[in-house]
Amino acid sequence: MLHRKLRLHRRISEIKDNWPGYDLNLFTYPQHYYGDLEYVLLPRGIIVDRIERLAKDIMKDLGYCDILILCVLKGGYKFCMDLVEHLKNISRNSDRFVSMKVDFIRLKFCRNDEAMDKMQIIGGDDLSTLAGKNVLIVKDLVGTGRTMKALLSSIEKYKPNMIKVASLLVKRTPGSDGFRPDYAGFEIPNLFVVGYALGYNEYFRDLNHICVISEHGKEKYRV
């Protein structure tokens, strides 16, 4: 099986730890979140432009082969939607049609008395249909990398032809095990970010921009 051993070390847009972000007053955002955010980390326009570049890289690397896209919900759906649209645009303007099937999964961890030890994949078609396919996993954020490694281990059992991972964000976190996706939009500091489908207790998913939540926002929507 072709996997991820031959990694292409691409440039990633890195947001420095001392990056002050953008003033909220420069953008429009839902009034019910006034006071709940610190600043805009990534405006939607920059996000979408970066995704277009990722789409071009993916099509170039995969050689215009048919792709089965697995979108990890809930946070990955906007990234996946925009990425697929750009992939389709590239396909439409090429001399070869690229078939793209999109499926959606959610990940659930079962806990024992001490820690998360078993991951369950919820939703999606029969995963045995992944056999022999070129699979692109689309996710919102990679933090420690442990979730992605567990997901890859589960997917590999179905013997796809190839597995690639695209993540909109990679967070610099002290607990990282060094996992890096094949395609990443932005590397960000160890901040609590919301928006562009990333949520906090199901709130903030309707934000167009990726923002840093305030302490007031955390407390207001804590459950």
Automatic annotation (TrEMBL):
Catalytic activity: IMP + diphosphate = hypoxanthine + 5-phospho-alpha-D-ribose 1-diphosphate
Gene Ontology terms: cellular component: cytoplasm
Assigned keywords, A-Z: Cytoplasm, Glycosyltransferase, Magnesium, Metal-binding, Nucleotide-binding, Purine salvage, Transferase
CDD domains (UniProt xref): PRTases_typeI
SUPFAM superfamilies referenced in this protein's UniProt entry, alphabetically: PRTase-like
InterPro entries, sorted: HGPRT (IPR050408), Hxn_phspho_trans (IPR005904), PRTase-like (IPR029057), PRTase_dom (IPR000836)
EC number: 2.4.2.8
Residue span, Phosphoribosyltransferase domain: 46-198
Listed cofactors: Mg(2+)
Family indicated by similarity: Belongs to the purine/pyrimidine phosphoribosyltransferase family.
Name of the protein: Hypoxanthine phosphoribosyltransferase
Biological source species: Equus caballus (Horse)
